[in-house]
Amino acid sequence: MSFEVGVKGLNRGLAWLDLRDPCDMSTRRLPYYFLVDASSSVGDAGSDASRTLIGLFVERMRQNPYHLETAHLSVIKFAGETKVVVPLVELPAFEPASPLLVAGCNLGHGLSLLAERIRDDIIVTTQDVKGDWSSVVVLLLMSEPTDDFTKGLDALDAIKTYRRFAFVSKAVLKTTVNRLKDSGFSVITEESSRDEAARWFDHVINCAFDHMEDPLVYPEEDV
Domain spans of the chain? Predict the structure, then answer.
């Protein structure tokens, strides 16, 4: 990301802080959900790669006042079992956990739990309350799913998310990658170029600023 783009993004974050009503001390949350492959087939190297990538996201977010003010992060692992390892928590308090590796890669169960958590976690907008921003989903898929994840995709499609991103390893079949793309995921792979990976990473971080294009319009509301 160029210096000019970085400064522009920072200025937009500062502008958001300036636009807030000083009498309104409440802050709308910007939820990021990380859905992480913890199947034993990924091995320690794959697990470390996922942890490192999440750490890079967190490090970049903590450099931006907009993210520090609004971003909340959660981590859900999926394998032979599916579990919330980090419930939705504000960015300054976030500490990534080390998910234990388990046999199997039940992506469908992970997607279903993700949809369930978004439904339960997110405060919706009403006439009296400005709810949370729509969620950003980041999938880290290191092995080919061992289940039919159609129902999981359907569950996720049934709720509103703002952006969906996925990093997939070369072990994942092209048909799986295409299904993720068809469901609205912006996908990169281990075989993507450095430029493609950098653009994807910046998009994950900076897509939050899309919410600021019109401060009077909120993602949950019809326009």
Answer: 30-210
